[in-house]
Fold this sequence. Notes:
- It is built from twelve helices and eight strands.
- The chain is an alpha/beta fold and 303 residues long.
- Strands 3-2-4-1-5-6-7-8 form an eight-stranded mixed β-sheet, sandwiched between helices.
- Helix 7 links the parallel strand 2 (133-136) and strand 3.
- The longest helix is centred in the first third of the chain and has 18 residues, at 8-25.
- The chain is elongated and about 65 Å long.
- The mean pLDDT is 91.
- Bound molecules: guanosine-5'-diphosphate.
- Guanosine-5'-diphosphate is lined by residues 109, 111-117, 194, 255-256, 258-259, 281-284, 288.
- Keywords: Cell membrane, Cytoplasm, GTP-binding, Hydrolase, Membrane, Nucleotide-binding, Receptor.
Amino acid sequence: xxxxxxxxxxxxxxxxxxxxLIARYRKxxxxxxxxxxxxxxxxxxxxxxxxxxxxxxxxxxxxxNIKDTKEIKDVISEKLVEIYYGDDDEEVEKLNIxxxxxxxxxxxxxxxxxxxxxIGKLAHxxxxxxxxxxxxxxxxxxxxxxxxxxxxxxxxxxxxxxxxEGSDPAAVIFDGIKAANSRNADVLICDTAGRLQNxxxxxxxxxxxxxxxxxxxxxxxxxxxxxxxxxxxxxxxxQAKTFSDATDxxxxxxxxxxxxxxGGIVLxxxxxxxxxxxxxxxGEKIEDLQxxxxxxxxxxxxx
Length: 303
Ligand code: GDP
């Protein structure tokens, strides 16, 4: 239910416009598809993804001999789900949490995207599931980042391993791993710096942090989550490209979906970059994080 509320802006905008389009056209023809394309691009679905989608739709319309626009809604939702998953199984793509031993999650993304907030929410959610969680304050660069993560740790009721501002992030995360191991924690979530102004430094720093994690914990990091702000549209796409060039991003936390009518960015990221959206941020509170489910998302658009 929360999911539906959080997506209200996108849902109203998208389903409202689609219903309007269907009412105006009645007949499925080339002009209908052109307007549909515009609608989807306007919802940030991304031009390439829209082209793929509309091609698929046209074929399906032919195959099923659909003439009336009223019948096309179901086909659109089916195809949106298909385009999201591509050739992969249509399943919710969950976190890679280990049954035994420590799971390490590295969280990356530019400042302001909602990294700290998302880490707090994720810690809360995992703790609710009965896991023991710890945080490592690896953003030692941004003033206030450590205190902010500490505050989220308190809210979630989990310990935060930290050093002073300006300390070596890899050393902080090394400490975090030691502490998590000695306390038998299930999950360590590692914050990182997000200053994209100095891309080379940032990417070197991430690489170093990753090396430490790989050395200290077998098969870690188990997830590298990139935090993207849904309201930044195609900017989020280019950040996703930059970060996935630098590290193996295993999933996206797409924040502020509640603050945009352009939730279509979800489809573009998965379809064009093959990175699954694992979580959606739907508000500023600790419980406003949802495991991302493409079926629920797409069918929610038409609800
Ligand atoms: P960071 O710099 O990436 O660590 O970003 P923060 O976690 O400090 O978040 C930046 C701002 O975005 C804060 O005001 C958060 O409350 C807000 N924020 C984060 N996630 C969400 C979300 O899912 N929805 C909304 N509406 N706001 C969010």
